[in-house]
Amino acid sequence: MTPKERAELYRRMLTIRRAEERLQKLFADGLVPGFLHLSIGQEAVPVGVSSALTEADTVSSNHRGHGHTLAKGVDLTGFFAEILGKATGLCRGRGGSMHVADLSKGMLGANGIVAAGLPITTGSALAHRMQGKGNIAVVYFGDGALAEGLVHECLNIAKLWSLPILFVCENNGWSEFSPTERQLATSLDRLGKAYGITYREVDGNVVEEVARAAGKLVAGMRKAPAPAILECRTTRVRGHFEGDRQDYRDSDEIAALDARDPIRLCAEALMAAGLDDAALAAIAAEVEAKIEAATEAALAAPLPEAGDILADVYTRAEV
Amino acid sequence: MTPKERAELYRRMLTIRRAEERLQKLFADGLVPGFLHLSIGQEAVPVGVSSALTEADTVSSNHRGHGHTLAKGVDLTGFFAEILGKATGLCRGRGGSMHVADLSKGMLGANGIVAAGLPITTGSALAHRMQGKGNIAVVYFGDGALAEGLVHECLNIAKLWSLPILFVCENNGWSEFSPTERQLATSLDRLGKAYGITYREVDGNVVEEVARAAGKLVAGMRKAPAPAILECRTTRVRGHFEGDRQDYRDSDEIAALDARDPIRLCAEALMAAGLDDAALAAIAAEVEAKIEAATEAALAAPLPEAGDILADVYTRAEV
Amino acid sequence: MAETRYIKAVNQALKDAMRDDPTVFLIGEDIGAAGGSFKATRDLLDLYGPERVYDAPIAEAAITGIAVGAALTGMKPVAEIMFMDFITLSMDMLVNQAAKARSMFGGQGSVPMVLRTPHGGGLNAGPQHSQCLEAWLAHVPGLKVVVPSNPADAYSLLRAAIDDPDPVIVVENKALYAMKGEMPDTPERIEIGKARIARPGRDATVVAYGAAVGMAEAAAEVMAAEGVEVEVIDLRSVQPWDEACVLESLSRTHNLVVVHEAVEAFGVGAEIAARMADIGFDELDGPIVRVGAPFAPSPFGKTLEEAYRPNADRIVAALRRTLA
Amino acid sequence: MAETRYIKAVNQALKDAMRDDPTVFLIGEDIGAAGGSFKATRDLLDLYGPERVYDAPIAEAAITGIAVGAALTGMKPVAEIMFMDFITLSMDMLVNQAAKARSMFGGQGSVPMVLRTPHGGGLNAGPQHSQCLEAWLAHVPGLKVVVPSNPADAYSLLRAAIDDPDPVIVVENKALYAMKGEMPDTPERIEIGKARIARPGRDATVVAYGAAVGMAEAAAEVMAAEGVEVEVIDLRSVQPWDEACVLESLSRTHNLVVVHEAVEAFGVGAEIAARMADIGFDELDGPIVRVGAPFAPSPFGKTLEEAYRPNADRIVAALRRTLA
Ligand SMILES: Cc1ncc(C[n+]2csc(CCOP(=O)(O)OP(=O)(O)O)c2C)c(N)n1
Ligand SMILES: Cc1ncc(C[n+]2csc(CCOP(=O)(O)OP(=O)(O)O)c2C)c(N)n1
Ligand SMILES: [Mg+2]
Ligand SMILES: [Mg+2]
């Protein structure tokens, strides 16, 4: 990876981080309707994975989907506007944080239903295989989702039918307010073995590692369609959703998170490779300016009209 | 196992066989309403497993449930009457072949929904654990059912919570009209490993093997509640249901079934152990007489009254 | 014009749709080599190969979700769920995914999938293989639900469903699979949401769909013998349903009976009756009477199942009551 | 008499039921250590231990099925499904298993389980976390469905549900969880299936349940200022529902409006309206008007969600229309 490529990954991670920090503030100010699940500490996963993807590849996501969405290249202003419920949002303000989608970028949607992204993505991968253009599909899901039966139905079918799907598990150790280890008697590596699906585990907080592993797996899948699993050990820094004070978490655990911060780790690697403070600061300034502009535009955008509720329930105007 | 015990297993298998052969004829004569899935060739599984069970243990079953039901000790006449849809049936003629149950014998029901027995039995096992009497729960399911997500949800929870449940898979290689190998990228031994659940495989057509393996597993579960898997390789002799001509099956495969017939294998073992033809014939005569009596009684029994439809939808008369 | 059976019409519609549109593909349990439990997909694997006809493992939720994802990625999947009772396993994918994607994504795309599934009794298949659950789906904004009552409609409605850009559930009736009927040489293109006057009349309106249409026609015969001319409306689709057609008929006949095979309480008929008790109130000369299954699981035995399913006699009794 | 909140009343009912009956146990996601997403089960793990309070993995189908199996084996499970939208994953266990076991096994036993789940909007939780799906369950013979509208009822109906020998779904309303209300020192024992006259009146009847009861009461206030006395009926349970009570009220007021937060089309209100358009036809002086959510997924933004949910104004407009 060239220093430039590495810096680009840094820039993307920082964009997600700053965007979510901005959302965090907007939420605290009462400007974000509904639930807000932040992926702070997990940015390396989607940025690393997306570095292996083209726009024609499809991804689908879960409730903690901001990073997945931004990494797939959606418009920042439309993203903010959506989460603020504005008419100019990517989904015209009807979806919000848990349902951001941009089909034009191959982003098939965040999802409020745990594990629902898996069959949708399996179907998308089937379409890719039938269309024969070498595109692939990626699904992001959490460790907690592994308890849902749908995961297994999809692992089975993806393997049976050699579908080009990358199962990306963001294993942050938590399922809402419970440690996932209390919810799972299995693990993804063992499931991978059970279904004969290629399995790789990476430090999900080291973006280069994620990118390298994803790159390899995806390249293979493009040539010969087949599923693969990428398990990323990562860290959920904030509560399950904003407003969750995480009383159930050990202070030691929380204190240790900083050392594994993916952005800090990437910055350190960049510095070790020769980038200086000024270069990092320049990236930060550029990112912050973009976020600020997007936020301002989104804040200034109009709310949807009430009459809009009935729009788009069906494609054709009702009979 | 004493010769007497062995002969008893034989008698039970033969009871199931003759009962199903009788049903087969009744079906051909148009006397059995609805679907009829016969378990001919699979009798050793429930007979072997049930030899380890008490009446207080619970079992639940699937669409191919006659053997499971009879082996749990339900009344033969009530069984026939149920399948014929008579008012005197175990379920007053409202369930039929796919829904025979006898709660008084711990038989929680056949089931028309593939894999539905698993969570019900998992719940029953949880109740047993809470009640602390050392009772256990058994679920019978087919190899095709392994593709349903519920199987995995239940393996996970049973292991997590150390539930005294025996998962009995009747692996007959078929899922309706398709070889199961085209539907499954995994296997139960691999799933057992993935979930850390004790797994045993037996020749499901050798009743002593089944009985021995089940006996061991169940004894362990009674002492220290924990799940276990017993996979029984077995043979579906008839079509998926009566009326299915099995055109999709190789004639070689069908021809080979006879050599693995569990009743023949048991008879041979009994003869090798000293039982003579006359003794076997005596068992057969006794079994046939019972089946005939049960059939006659069931045939003579009245149909339910139409007014009975609304009975028992709720326990208390409607408000 | 040729005579065909309902199940063959379904098969023909699938065949023609696959011929006309290479993005149409099939997925379901035992639909390939075996041609489907009811033979709706017979020969299609041979004709179009395993890249267009997927024999799926027993995993209804995944099958339905795969259809959603493939539809979002440019394909037109037609999924089969072997018995409507098993859509209990597909509900999340239908309701939270397929139905909502277009609206909650702000109209960006759509989910052009079809889910075919048979409902209804008559096979003594019992409580878990006979249910008519279309009322659930009709309650879900974003889904469409069609219920063909005869072979020609089975063809045309399935074609319309496949052509539709939104998710459509095609509910077939098991007891009708063997039904024979005329199939026009150039099958009608049906617009989903338009009803059909199955039999014109001036004294009372019976609204029905699926297998109940035939029962309503039989009841109309009985009434005709007494000089009462009953109009029978075949809704064809229950979501959307042709409110204008029903209202127009009611405004001529002033008496309404609604019939379906599903459980009466909280069934599709409730919506039709409720709507007419509002916008059609001034037209009503008598109570709106519904005919459906009693409030109990579908029993399996022959006599019980017969007593459970609606029939012409019960429709006649309902007509007599509203006309009294 | 003490004031309490709806969610605390739920918590108290669970606590008391667990104290009174050792076979009562709880199962659900994050209900133990975390006390539930809405804190309905707060402190219960500490009080009764992990043998009575099961923090389950994310597996709604299994959770529901486990409740069925435990209920068939002598226990009284109370399962929580975190949002009613997720019962899409539990439908098979509810509909094909819990609901049918007693009837299809010929009355041998019963399934004394409870499934608690919150429905409704007001939290801007969007299309997959706001749905009111009780009409599906009301359509299923064998299930009971209660929908408490206030803290005292939240207590009493949950106790009644736990005492009931058959499967009962307790639908709570998220927007009501913070509602304060009086809790009698000796809470009322409510019989499931009996409605409550929330406000007597002589000019029109509004039938409501859950959060819609408060909206109906507010509408009645508005109408009272104009001299129109509106009777508000709180159904308390929608399956079974108190047909006799509604008919009796209608026979005094002669005008009927039915309100709920669920989507209007094919909702619970359709059944009530349809039934009254039959057995109550002679009592009706005007159209039966329903008020519910429009036919669209629940939008998430504040203004859209407000416009989507029914409210007193829309009930007033409905009353004016039927009284016109
Ligand atoms: C079907 C379903 N069940 C439960 C929930 C509630 N819920 C939302 S997120 C979550 C935990 C998910 O944990 P994990 O998959 O590890 O993702 P993470 O939040 O850690 O990123 C739960 C239980 C849901 N949204 N959908
Ligand atoms: C949920 C569900 N899906 C599909 C079916 C239809 N079906 C009934 S039996 C069966 C095959 C089951 O195969 P297996 O579990 O191996 O049992 P076997 O018939 O071989 O004993 C299928 C697909 C069903 N009854 N329930
Ligand atoms: Mg997690
Ligand atoms: Mg099998």
From TrEMBL, chains A, B:
Cofactor(s) this protein cannot do without: thiamine diphosphate
Catalytic activity: N(6)-[(R)-lipoyl]-L-lysyl-[protein] + pyruvate + H(+) = N(6)-[(R)-S(8)-acetyldihydrolipoyl]-L-lysyl-[protein] + CO2
CDD domains documented for this protein: TPP_E1_PDC_ADC_BCADC
Matches recorded under InterPro entries: DH_E1, PDH_E1_Alpha_Subunit, THDP-binding
GO biological process, one term: pyruvate decarboxylation to acetyl-CoA
Keyword Oxidoreductase: yes
Gene Ontology molecular function terms on file: pyruvate dehydrogenase (acetyl-transferring) activity
Taxonomy, superkingdom: Bacteria
Domain Dehydrogenase E1 component: 11-305
Keywords on record: Oxidoreductase, Pyruvate, Thiamine pyrophosphate
PANTHER family: PYRUVATE DEHYDROGENASE E1 COMPONENT SUBUNIT ALPHA, PYRUVATE DEHYDROGENASE E1 COMPONENT, ALPHA SUBUNIT BACTERIAL AND ORGANELLAR
Function: The pyruvate dehydrogenase complex catalyzes the overall conversion of pyruvate to acetyl-CoA and CO(2). It contains multiple copies of three enzymatic components: pyruvate dehydrogenase (E1), dihydrolipoamide acetyltransferase (E2) and lipoamide dehydrogenase (E3).
Name by which UniProt lists this protein: Pyruvate dehydrogenase E1 component subunit alpha
Native source organism of the sequence: Seohaeicola zhoushanensis
From TrEMBL, chains C, D:
Oxidoreductase as UniProt keyword: yes
Keywords: Oxidoreductase, Pyruvate, Thiamine pyrophosphate
Molecular function GO terms recorded: oxidoreductase activity
Pfam families: Transket_pyr, Transketolase_C
SMART domains, per the entry: Transket_pyr
Record-linked Gene3D superfamilies: 3.40.50.920, 3.40.50.970
Residue span, Transketolase-like pyrimidine-binding domain: 4-179
The protein's required cofactors: thiamine diphosphate
Domain of life (superkingdom): Bacteria
PANTHER family: PYRUVATE DEHYDROGENASE E1 COMPONENT BETA SUBUNIT (PTHR43257), PYRUVATE DEHYDROGENASE E1 COMPONENT SUBUNIT BETA (PTHR43257:SF2)
Protein known as: Pyruvate dehydrogenase subunit beta
Organism field: Seohaeicola zhoushanensis
Source species taxonomy: Bacteria, Pseudomonadati, Pseudomonadota, Alphaproteobacteria, Rhodobacterales
